[in-house]
Amino acid sequence: MKNVTxxxxxxxxxxxxxxxxxxxxxxxxxxxxxxxxxGVLIFFGKGVCxxxxxxxxxxxxxxxxxxxxxxxxxxxxQLERARTRLRKVEIEADEYRMNGYSEIERxxxxxxxxxxxxxERLENYKNxxxxxxxxxAINQVRQRVFQQALQGALGTLNSCLNSELHFRTIRANIGIxxxxxxxxx
Length: 185
Prior knowledge:
Structural class: mainly alpha
Coiled coil: 65-99
Transmembrane segments: 32-54
Family: Belongs to the ATPase B chain family.
Organism: Licuala paludosa
Protein name: ATP synthase CF0 subunit I
């Protein structure tokens, strides 16, 4: 440090004869040169370089922030639209689900009603068929009983009647028929 201060004092002792030479003492000349260069740079480059660079950097940062904000707003709007669409789709899905359930219930009820109607018709048909078969069986039994009774009566009559009784019955019937014929004429 003593060399630096000595170099400033030594400037005052330089001869004014105008001799110009090189100072080979690096420690003495470097701080002076650096202070001169920095002074010139700050004086001339202060408004131009550093402020312009900082202003450009500031503008780029602000522009990036603005773009980010716009992108954020756009993303938020898209998110809200997507949420709204999701709500609509969920509502539609619920409606389809409810309509589907009610349609299924309606179809189920219709199927149950149709099955009940078919069962009722089949029951009626069965009852009619049973009634018809009962009537047919009763008629067959009546015919057989009547035939058997008639055969039994004929057998009894044939065994009880002799030919003379037979002729008298025929004459009586002929007389009845003749009397009926006279009445109708």
